[in-house]
Amino acid sequence: MTDRPAIRTPEPVRNPFYDDETWWRHGIVYQIYPRSFADSDGDGTGDLPGIESKLGYLGELGVDAIWLSPIYPSPGRDVGYDVSDHTAVDPLFGSEADFDRLVESAHRRGIRVILDLVMNHTSDMHPWFQASRASRDGPYADWYLWRDPSGIDDDGRPLPPNNWLSWFGGPAWEWDPRRQQFYMHTFLVEQPELNWRNPAVEAAQFDMVRGWLARGVDGFRLDVFNAFLKHPELLANPEIEGATLWARQRHLYDRDQPDFPDLIGRFRAILDDRPGRMSVGELFASEAERAVALTTDRHMVFDWALLAAPWSAATYGDAIWLRETMFGDDRWLANVLSNHDQSRHASRLASSAGLADTDAVARAAAVVLLTIRGTPFMYYGEEIGLRDVQVPEDEIIDPPARRALVDPDFQWWNRDGCRSPMPWTSGPGYGFTSGRPWLRFGDDADARNVASQDSDPRSVLATYRRLIELRRKSEAVRSGTLRVVETGTPDVLAWTREVPGERLVVVVNFADASRTTRAAVDGAATYRPLAGSHLDPSAPTRDGDLTLRALEAVVLHVD
Ligand code: GLC
Questions:
Q1: How far is CA 356 from CA 307, 348, 351, 360, 509, in A?
Q2: CB atoms within 10 A of CB 447
Q3: Ligand 1, residues 35, 77, 223: which to mutate, most atoms within 8 A of Cβ?
Q4: Residues enclosing ligand 1, CB less than 6 A?
Q5: Statement: residue 2 has pLDDT above 50
Q6: Active site residue 233
Q7: Residue 85 CB-density burial (10 A; 0-12 exposed, 13-18 middle, 19+ buried)
Q8: Which ranges constitute the DSSP H helices of 183-334?
Q9: What are 456-509's pLDDT values in tens digits?
Q10: What is the pLDDT of residues 505-558, one digit of tens each?
């Protein structure tokens, strides 16, 4: 007898859209901050094998793709967004083989893998920058934005080339004594800006993109993508009135250049060589109009109109209507309430409306996120209603937050608050680590964790599961047209979702007290509740009167 190779029985592909090229329009993307998701080796930092061990959980939840915040080698000055090698995996997170196994295991479960591409800048430790700063005429001399001083001040110090500012505080120009020139950085001094007008930079970046695609990656989130190109002559920005130093400039020349859509077209062409590859750009410090202009039929853009809205029927109604009107039928929306840069929405929305019950807000907000038109992007932990964690000053890691402690001209919130580790169970380490976590947990982690919510049908987690199930079943929720409906009831917002043969109405009560409204979008119809923020969604009476409990949101089928 000869040994026969082991036959691996593939696990069933749960995701019904996996083989569909337009999966990203139907599906849900789940953002993982790798440091904080699951730690397999007890060093206190999450890692790739940890993520792999949670794919079963993610499959059950019903997400279609995971987006990993940067996993590349990095000195960690901007917690991974300062990349020193875009083509490799940081040993902190695991090996190259761990990454390939994660992709394979995810695919076996029907889950796609999206990488975060930080292509606007590199770490100052990147070999390209090391070579660039070493010589003014070497092969990498022109890979970054180097300029001579605009003059010398009275003390003999070189003056920066123009008035551009860093988003992370201070000027955008750093003097390099070796090269005797300034280099530009929109973020930290340790994040020098690449010169995308140099064709060699574009070629190198696109080769890197092809390399990840060849390893089975399904798409990319592009970090601050509208900042890649600057004005070729690096003109000074006009000065205007504004509340902060940053707001006192019109950012005409340090981002959003007219030739940028061509660059994105060239990037998209690489993805289009393979079917079903998705991309989403992170709009940096710009208005929704820019997001619309940069969205194409296969490329999405995060705009911030929804994320910036405080919790009220009026602001949500405006944001949903504005986005529908601006994006129109041809451009697909990327919907997001939380990410690794913003206060978590359970905390943010509850406090914006003076509400104490963050879970109730999280459940109602889940109905909004999962039933408006577009692709929902979830941020790990929102499905258990995770809240911002209060980090004491002496534990702050987020670099701009540390600067804000000492620079009176610079305001910032501490992004550590939304990056705390995922509590999976109660008890020491909370099922995240057997060691000391890199960042503290919230005080509520013993009560608020995946295990405690798993078996509670009224939990935030159970609510997400029911709504995601509804999305999978309902063509109208995934792709139907959206029309905002005038309810005439203060605090109550409603919209319809419709495809031929299926019509739904979503009604959300933003108030912390019950409200009675009319469900009627069609006088003769009857309404059947399908799901909502509560386990037992309220139903309209025969006359079409609908009484919603405090912070209740329902999805009704119109028969
Ligand atoms: C993006 C990232 C943020 C990072 C910055 C600089 O805005 O989301 O976390 O600090 O880019 O890379």
A1: 20, 11, 8, 9, 16
A2: 11
A3: 223
A4: 78, 81, 118, 187, 223-224, 282, 340-341
A5: no
A6: no
A7: middle
A8: 199-214, 260-272, 288-294, 313-327
A9: 999 999 999 999 999 999 999 999 999 999 999 999 999 999 999 999 999 999
A10: 999 999 999 999 987 776 668 899 999 999 999 999 888 899 999 999 999 999
